[in-house]
Specification:
single chain, alpha/beta, 5-stranded mixed sheet, 4-stranded parallel sheet, 23 helices, 8% strand, elongated
């Protein structure tokens, strides 16, 4: 098995474990806060409210885990059966059965899935609901009995052996060695699998017995990452020095630890710094008896303080400070050593290297034959990571702002890999997670990145969308112009332009303009009378030798389509004391005639043009002036 395949397998298994816990983090935090506040040794002791602690950890939390595990395997139906089956191990033991829930939940989902497959297509019409409900009830009940009689005792023995092993490790002072595995695994994006898949269940069980647990602190400690970022800020140069303060805020206060992973990967020897910081922090936590009441998720210093039990704030913060100092000292020595050797540690070099890799970053990671969406086809971009929080939220925010700045309304969201929506056109993931993302969303175009902060992918996608928007605007303008030109041509036909006419009375001129509209199919014959009535109420002479007779009000109903007619009287026609040389009959449906009138207003503003319109014998000249 290749290294990548093994890593993907480990990540997939870890994702499955953490997938049972992560959807329920809010419930764990609620239990932790109630524990920290209301138990006899809490911040606000309250006997009544403290009675919530036991039932929540005994029943609620294991059942939530079981439901999530069953749902991962067989949807809601699998979740229900998983929860029913887990009641067997819960009732059959005297300790919180989190391991039992992580076993029975998926097992219940798998069992009902197989049973449903046996019945699929073999049930007579009209009996589907009966078979569905009773098969679920029978399977759930049977699994609950099996769990109580057989699986529960086995899991209880396994749990006891595991607890004894952990106790030996803790008593022998070997727990700090866990950092040798935990810290490198975090940088390889196994952080959620380790924390929520392994350490959180162990921590919850210990917290139920002792009121706190150090296991909540092994992976979530922000100290090691903070030390590395501080060292870069003080001793590095160029862009990496400038970017470090922002990364510190996101990491330490925001709790998004993924932000410092690229800084470690940029110089792999810094793994020694985070391992040293992690080990020293665990040693300090263990020495001072520190522990949290629930997992701090995300691993922000604020979450750490919120999950700290009464009287343990000093021990908790001491471990964070010690781990930061140790990590900082080791990282500083390594960074300064590299500087003395002339090695380039600035982010400028890393960015240049990434620019050279742009093509691979966006294209070579694609599967053969994978569709590349055109900019106008893209309406949803998903930034995915292992948990759907942390790095994916940060990446989505950065990309969203860039797209908003160019006026794009494309939806940008962050999701866990297994929750990528099927209507996503582009999915962005860290290169170590791309293969899993492809399986989850085969219809999407996948973009792999190395660095959440400095990746060129954001700018490349933004420029691609921007180019598409500009192209779309150009097309829209061209279509609009073509439509307007066509509309103008439809509104005015050459046969409706009459030049060099002899002067007549006003009403006769209006009738002549109206007849042209009627004969061309623009209006009903009655519209001509409406034009005459309008002229009696108010003259339609508008100046510069132009009159525009037309009907209004109820006459609009007599208009079939927008059109105009143009009559030229070189000697003029009297319109209530004003001489009109151009009589333009108008039938306006909606606003379609406004472009013609807009052109007219521009034309007659120029004395020279208005004069030529009154006297020209060039029909094409007038037609082009009104339609182009």
């Amino acid at each position: 098995m290749s290294k990548n395949s093994f890593q993907n397998s480990v990540q997939s298994f870890g994702r499955f474990l953490s997938g049972m816990v992560m959807p329920n983090i809010g419930a764990f935090i609620a239990w932790g806060l109630i524990t920290a506040l209301f138990i006899p040794t809490g911040w606000l002791p309250n006997e009544g409210l403290a009675s919530l602690v036991g039932p929540m950890i005994t029943y609620l939390l294991p059942l939530l885990i079981a439901f999530s595990g069953g749902k991962l395997v067989a949807g809601i139906r699998g979740g229900v059966i998983g929860a029913v089956a887990t009641m067997g191990v819960i009732v059959g033991s005297d300790i919180p059965m989190f391991i039992g829930a992580m076993v029975m939940g998926p097992f219940g989902g798998y069992t009902i899935k197989k049973v449903d497959q046996l019945f699929e297509g073999n049930v007579k019409s009209g009996f589907e609901m009966l078979v569905s409900n009773f098969s679920a009830g029978i399977v759930g009940g049977a699994l609950a009995i099996l769990a109580y009689q057989v699986i529960g005792p086995v899991v209880l023995g396994l749990n006891t052996a595991l607890a004894a092993g952990v106790e030996v490790i803790v008593n022998q002072g070997l727990l700090p060695l866990a950092s040798i595995f935990v810290e490198p695994a975090k940088v390889l994006f196994l952080n959620n699998a380790i924390n929520h898949g392994v350490l959180s269940p162990l921590g919850i069980q210990e917290a139920a017995e002792t009121g706190r647990s150090i296991f909540f602190m092994l992976e979530t400690n922000p100290g090691p990452g903070l030390g590395v970022l501080l060292a870069y800020w003080i001793f590095a140069k160029g862009m990496i020095k400038q970017s470090a303060p922002g990364a510190i805020i996101i990491h330490f206060f925001g709790g998004i630890h993924e932000i410092y992973f690229p800084y470690v990967l940029m110089k792999p020897s810094l793994l020694l710094a985070v391992i040293g910081g992690g080990a020293s922090g665990i040693f300090t936590f263990n020495l001072l008896g520190a522990g949290l009441v629930a997992t701090p998720s995300p691993g922000s210093i604020f979450a750490y303080i919120a999950m700290t039990p009464r009287g343990a704030l000093f021990s908790v913060l001491s471990g964070v400070v010690v781990s930061t100092i140790v990590s900082f000292v080791i990282a500083s020595a390594l960074i300064k050593r590299s500087a003395d050797r002339g090695e380039e540690l600035s982010l400028d070099a890393a960015t240049t290297k990434l620019r050279d890799m742009k093509g691979r970053d966006l294209h070579t990671e694609k599967t053969a034959g994978q569709k590349e969406y055109n900019a106008d086809e893209i309406n949803k971009i998903v930034f995915a990571c292992d948990a759907g929080m942390g790095s994916s939220a940060m990446g989505a925010s950065r990309l969203r702002k860039k797209l908003e700045n160019i006026g794009s309304d494309i939806t940008v969201v962050n999701k866990a890999i297994e929750e990528i929506p099927q209507d996503a056109q582009i999915v962005i993931t860290h290169k170590n997670l791309t293969e899993r993302a492809k399986k989850a969303a085969p219809q999407a175009e996948h973009v792999s990145i190395d660095d959440f902060l400095q990746t060129p992918a954001y700018d490349m996608i933004t420029n691609r969308i921007k180019a598409g928007l500009e192209e779309k605007k150009t097309e829209v303008k061209a279509e609009k112009k073509e439509s307007e030109d066509k509309l103008s041509q439809d509104v005015l036909q050459k046969k409706n332009i009459k030049l060099g006419l002899e002067s007549v009375e006003r009403d006769e001129a209006i009738k002549m303009a109206g007849n042209l509209l009627y004969e061309s199919g623009y209006v009903d014959e009655d519209y001509i009378d409406a034009m005459l009535e309008r002229e009696e109420d108010l003259t339609t002479y508008i100046g510069q030798g132009v009159a525009i007779p037309h009907g209004v009000g109820s006459a609009k109903k007599k208009i079939k389509k927008t059109g105009i007619s143009i009559l030229q009287f070189p000697e003029g026609v009297d319109f209530d004391g004003n001489t009109a040389y151009l009589v333009i009959g108008i039938a306006g449906l909606g606003n379609e005639h406004l472009k013609v009138l807009a052109n007219l207003s521009e034309l007659i503003e120029e004395d020279e043009t208005a004069e030529k319109l009154r006297k020209t014998d060039d029909l094409d000249y007038i037609y082009n002036k009104f339609t182009l």
